[in-house]
Structures are given as C-alpha cells and as structure tokens.
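Figure 3 (text version): structure tokens given as input.
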C-alpha cells in the first residue's frame, strides 16, 4: 500500500500541486503587473500587428502592441524588435512573435494531410519538435498550428492542412502536434506555443467554398468538429484561433456559445483566443456588425482576446475601439483585465519575462544535426505514402532495369514538393522524384526525364518528347497532380479531375506502354510498366487512372525528402504502409462522402431502385477512408471478445489475429471501428475508435488486442448528454474502413 501512495503522491499529487502553485505564482505576478498598467497598455496586449515599420515601432514604444505576426525575419530581427518592447516601454512587457509553422520551418515535412496518412502520431510529434526547435531558434514563440479542422469536402483547399475526415484520427494528430510544438514545459527554449485552429467548424463550409457559411446541428458540432479541439486543449494548447466562418448564424469570431460557453465554462480552459486575420473586422462584411466598433464589442464580449492584425488599412479593430467601448461603459475594465491576464499568462508560461531574447548561442550549441532532421523527414515522408493500386505486383520496380522514363509536370518541381504553408522552406532543399531516383540508383539506371505537359494548361507540344523517351525506357513513372498554388487557403475547386492535359498525356503514354502489347486486360510481359504517382493536397477524382493504370501511388506533397521517399517506395527500399485519412470520391457529385455516414431508412444498394443510391454512379467511393495497400498482404482472422457482455461502465478486450501472408516484411495499420446496433438517436454505421500500427515479418502472425471502454461506446443522446445505452455493439477490425471482420457483445443494464 505504501508503494502505491508514494507513486500517487510523486506522480499525481505533487505535480498537480506544483502546477497549481505555478498558476497562482503567475496570477500574483499578473495581478501586480495589471495594477500598474494603463488602459492603453492593457488594450495594447490585445493587439497584434504584422509589419514593423517606423510607425509600428512607435506603437510598440507606446505599449500599444502585445504581439507580432513576425513571419520569417529571424532571431536578430526578433531580438531587435523585442529590445524596443523590453527596454523602451514604460513597463517592459515582452512581445509574442507568431508565425505559421504548419509542417516545418526550415526542414519541411509532408503536409499535415500526408502526415495523417502515416497514422504514426509519435513520428508526427517528432516532426513538430524539430519544427519548434528551428522556429524558436529563428525568433518565433508561437505557431498558428495545428490546424485541426475536420474536412469532409475535398473541394475545400484547406483539407491539406488538417488530418482529414475523422474526429478520432483528427484528435490523435491534434494531441501529437500540440505536444510536439509545446513539449511539457513552454519555458523550454526549444519549444513554441501551439494554436489549435480554426475554431470552429471552418471545414464545414457549404460547397467546400473557403470562408463560406457553416450551418450544422449542435450534435454535428460536438461529435465531429469539436473533438480535435478538445484533444488539443487537453494536451495543453496555449492558444486557439477563432475562424472566419459564420456558424449557425453567429460568426465563429463572435460566437459566445463556442468561445466562452464551451471553451471556457465547459472545458475550463484558460489559454489565449486570437482571431484569424481580420476576422473581427470582417464581422461587418458578414453584416453582423454595422461598423468596426460594434465588431470589436461583439468579438470581445464573445471571448476573443487578441485581434490578429485587423484591417491594416485602418489599423486594428481592437486598438481604437476597445478604449471607446470602456469609456462608454459597454465593456468594463475588469473584462479587459480578464483577456490581458490570458495573454500575460501565456508570456509568463513561455518565460519571456525572464528570457525575452533569443539565446542564439544556446541554439548553436544544441542544434539537432541536419542528418537527424532529414532522417525524420524521410521516414515521415515514406510512411505518408499510400499505395492505391498495384495490379500484378507491378511494384516494386526491379532495380535491375537499365532505364526509366520519369514524366510529368511534378516530376522535377522542387517548389511544389513543399506544399502550401512552407514557412522558411527552400525549393533548393527539396528532392524531386527525378533526383530521388538518381540518389537511389545513381549510374545503375538511366533516368530519361520529360515534363510532357504543364500542370494546368492546354499545351500538348511536349507530348511527342514524352512518348519518345517512353519508347527508350524499361519503365515509366508519371508524376501528376496539382501545383502548390491550387491547394491551401482560398483554393476551393469545383472540379477534382487532374488539371490541364495531364490525363490526356497519361492516356497517350498508356497506349504506348500497353495497348499495343496487351492481349486482354492482363498486361503482357512485354508491356512497359507504367506507374502514376500523385502529388496533391486533396482527394482527386482519378477514375480513368484508377480503372486503367496498374500501379498508383498517392504521394501528396512530402516536403524536403519527397523524391527520396517516392523513389525508395517505387524500388522497394521501403514497403508502403500509409492509409487514407480522407475518402476519395468518384465525382464531386458524391460530396459530401465520408465513411461514418448513417444507415438512412433505405440503405444504398446500387441495383435496387428505391434505396439511397445514385442512378448514375456507384454509391461507394473511389477509395475508402483508411485504405492503403502494401507490397505484402495482411490477413485478419479469429476476431473475438473476452466477455459476451459488460455493464455500461465496464470494459472488455477484443482480439484479432493478423498475419503477413507475403514474402516481405511490412507495416499494417490495424483499425478498430465500433457500431451501436440500435440507439435512441441515429448513429453512423461505424466509427473509428482505435488503431495500432504494427510491423510483421514475412509470414509472421500476431494477435492484436484493443481495450473497449465505455467512452468508446458513448454518444450524445437527444438531449446531447453523453450516454452509453444497453444493447448489442459490433466491433469491426481491418486494414481499412470498408474491409472489416466483426464480432459483437452486449451492454447490459
Ligand atoms: C490566414 C489563415 C490562418 C493563418 C493566419 C495568419 O488567413 O486563415 O490559418 O494562421 O491567416 O497567417
């Protein structure tokens, strides 16, 4: 008994005491500082500017700025600006320097949607740790990441920035990223404050059109869009960014229900809420505020602490207006104090009052080697690659081939490898597919490269050269997709086909490689193997390619190590293990399409008329959530539970045998889905509740177990209360959301 109390005291009670003491310690210092601050200085802490010209330096001197969207100006410039705040203002309150470090600072990792395809939160956390180190050494205290918006509409360009469609996977990735950026102590010089964004439901924009209206039920808000934010908050996220979108009639940046009722009252979170870029000023465009003064009143009283940048033509919204609102008695100084406390607390947590300047000597002595950083970037890139098709085991390509044609507008385009939001990343540091193959095979193989066509134009003049090199080669890799400008913010699309004439060229090359040789759909040995590698930040409706091309690799935008990772997968140095974090539709007409849809009263059966189907398309997606192939195959068998029934607050174990049936080692993401057979509200046909990424040697078989807890069986009832209802539950396990084996158990009263 004594041992347990020692453990409980040492690892639970004492840390909690220290944590609460630290909080009180901060609160005492904050109160002392507040007591000295003028109203202007307090409001200054709630204002963020983006530039630092002479006028803005004077604003800093007057104590009218609390933080700066600093960009990639570097440590020297950060220290110069910080010196103004610390040494030339009345109270010397240090500034916060913020930046968008979404998937790397100097070392660029795969885009977040690609990282989610790895289903490896430990590796994703490592990448965020490296990003934090590089950003901190360059003078950034605060990143506007992770973006945790659930996205079920690939027309929305920002789907690339998050972890896809699933609330559970999204929550796991949100927690990993927050911990990666922040670590366990923000005073650690190599850590930076995270900012979960965009709060909330920004990914639910109607029509997938960026900044568009979001109108969803409270049930959908709480069961789909909020969970990743809750995971971020529970992981200690220092800040949250309010979104641009209207949410059920109240813009997210002025929504008391989400910003205060949920975030502060229900979740008891005491971090900083910052608006998105002028999202407060845009309340006027929403026609929700008649002018910027009313916008300031509505955002501030709803719970937004900091005004990001505001409309720089007229200056920030908070800076001129909050003081007037206090003087008119519409806002109290105590309300101002509450927000200022949140900001000062964040600065204390970051240790800025003790160490306001970047300690460049420290970073010089403690920098992780570039070799290490590149190794993490390469491993994450490799694990982010999803093998979508591999007919007749065309892949991996044989290393003995003497020549290879590498074609396509993204085959040798370093800038596109970095994807959107690439911070201080440099195209010259990105390895393209052409370079990756040369790095891997050197002189052993002749790489014939032809761009063939542009990404998004109608010029076919390059086709001839492309066809010519195909005829001179033993294999063909066509690298197709979107440019980095076609994805990310303000990049919504109505058409998800390959842009330009890329597919036209692929068809022409296909003719050269196969049609002349094939006696039937099975490709004759004399055919020239043709692989399509996709580089994109959203699902694409690649129906013809999916139907006709024997091997398809989803490579997203993989960052600096893109080409090395692709080459190592193509030639079998690495056995792909990625799984899709988002559903690939057959057409935009199917959108929204995601795996956790509901049964409906007439479940879709494609050849039955009066069911929830389309008459012009299968109701299934092109590729389902969680899908991804390997160079081996995995067999699932003998799923079983250790108890036939449990009470509502009990737990049980489910077991399944997974066997590697092939002759190469491989990794498999074993996915666990749950279905409540009947419930008091309609529920999804299945929901991801767990996963394990396992390595199996060729021929190896292993029993994998999951603990099923009551939390995994709970849902929001008609009163939006979290409940577990008695009845039968199905647990389904497999390598993707559509191919599962199942068993069941009962929850009894
Ligand atoms: C942008 C984005 C947001 C980003 C901010 C600062 O408009 O919506 O994600 O962090 O502005 O760059």
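Below: residues designed for each position.
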């Amino acid at each position: 008994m004594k041992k347990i109390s020692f453990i409980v005291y040492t690892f639970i009670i004492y840390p909690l005491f220290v944590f609460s003491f630290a909080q009180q310690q901060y609160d005492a210092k904050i109160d002392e500082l507040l007591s000295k601050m003028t109203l202007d200085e307090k409001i200054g802490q709630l204002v963020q500017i983006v530039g630092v010209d002479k006028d803005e330096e004077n604003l800093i001197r007057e104590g009218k700025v609390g933080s700066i969207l600093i960009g990639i100006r570097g440590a020297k410039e950060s220290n110069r600006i910080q010196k103004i705040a610390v040494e030339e203002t009345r109270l010397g309150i240090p500034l916060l320097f913020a930046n968008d470090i979404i998937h790397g600072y100097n070392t660029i990792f795969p885009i977040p949607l690609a990282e989610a395809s790895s289903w490896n939160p430990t590796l994703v956390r490592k990448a965020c740790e490296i990003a934090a180190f590089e950003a901190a050494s360059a003078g950034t205290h605060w990143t506007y990441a992770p973006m945790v918006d659930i996205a079920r509409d690939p027309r929305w360009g920002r789907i690339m920035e998050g972890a896809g469609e699933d609330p559970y996977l999204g929550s796991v990735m949100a927690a990993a990223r927050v911990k990666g950026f922040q670590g366990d102590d923000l005073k650690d010089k190599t850590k930076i404050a995270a900012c979960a964004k965009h709060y909330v439901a920004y990914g639910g924009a109607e029509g997938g059109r960026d900044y568009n209206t979001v109108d969803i039920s409270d049930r959908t808000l709480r069961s789909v869009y909020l969970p990743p934010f809750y995971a971020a908050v529970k992981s200690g996220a220092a800040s949250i960014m309010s979104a641009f979108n209207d949410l059920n009639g109240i813009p997210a940046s002025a929504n008391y229900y989400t910003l205060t009722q949920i975030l502060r009252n229900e979740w008891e979170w005491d971090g900083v809420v910052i608006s998105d870029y002028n999202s407060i000023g845009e309340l006027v465009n929403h026609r929700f505020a008649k002018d910027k003064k009313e916008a300031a009143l509505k955002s501030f009283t709803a719970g937004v602490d900091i005004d990001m940048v505001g409309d720089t033509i007229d200056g920030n919204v908070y800076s001129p207006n909050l003081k007037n609102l206090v003087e008119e008695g519409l806002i109290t100084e105590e309300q101002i104090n509450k927000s200022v406390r949140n900001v000062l607390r964040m600065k204390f947590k970051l240790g800025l009052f003790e160490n306001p300047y970047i300690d460049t000597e420290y970073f010089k002595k403690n920098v992780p080697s570039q070799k290490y950083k590149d190794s993490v970037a390469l491993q994450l890139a490799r694990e982010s690659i999803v093998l979508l098709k591999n007919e007749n085991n065309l892949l991996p390509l044989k290393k003995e081939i003497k020549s290879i044609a590498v074609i396509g507008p993204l085959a040798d385009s370093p800038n596109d490898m970095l994807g959107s939001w690439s911070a201080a990343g440099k195209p010259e540091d990105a390895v393209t597919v052409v370079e990756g193959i040369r790095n891997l095979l050197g002189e052993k193989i002749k790489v014939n490269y032809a761009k063939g066509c542009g990404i998004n134009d109608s010029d076919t003049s390059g086709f001839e050269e492309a066809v010519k090199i195909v005829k001179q080669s033993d294999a063909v890799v066509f690298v197709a997709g979107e440019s980095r400008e076609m994805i990310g913010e303000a990049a919504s699309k109505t058409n998800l086909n390959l842009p330009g004439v890329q597919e036209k060229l692929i068809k022409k090359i296909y003719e050269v490689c196969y049609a002349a040789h094939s006696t039937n759909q099975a490709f004759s040995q004399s055919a020239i193997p043709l692989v399509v590698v996709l580089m994109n930040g959203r699902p694409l409706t690649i129906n013809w390619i999916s139907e006709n091309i024997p091997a398809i690799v989803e490579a997203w935008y993989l960052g600096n190590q893109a080409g090395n990772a692709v080459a190592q997968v193509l030639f079998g140095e690495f056995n792909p293990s990625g799984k899709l974090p988002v559903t690939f539709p057959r057409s935009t007409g199917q959108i929204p399409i995601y795996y956790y849809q509901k049964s409906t009263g007439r479940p879709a059966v494609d050849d039955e008329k009066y069911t929830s189907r389309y008459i012009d398309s299968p109701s299934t997606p092109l590729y389902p959530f969680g899908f991804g192939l390997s160079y081996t195959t995995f067999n699932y068998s003998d799923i079983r539970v250790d108890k036939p029934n449990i009470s509502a607050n009990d737990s049980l174990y489910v077991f399944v045998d997974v066997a590697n049936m092939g002759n190469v080692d491989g990794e498999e993401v074993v996915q666990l889905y749950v279905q409540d057979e009947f419930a008091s509200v309609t529920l999804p046909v299945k929901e991801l509740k767990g996963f394990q990424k396992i390595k199996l040697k060729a021929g190896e078989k292993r029993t994998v177990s999951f603990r099923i807890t009551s939390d995994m069986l709970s849902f929001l009832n008609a009163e939006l209360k979290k409940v577990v209802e008695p009845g039968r539950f199905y647990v389904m396990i497999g390598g993707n959301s559509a191919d599962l084996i199942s068993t069941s158990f009962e929850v009894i009263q």
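The CA atoms of residues 514 and 527 lie 5 Å apart.
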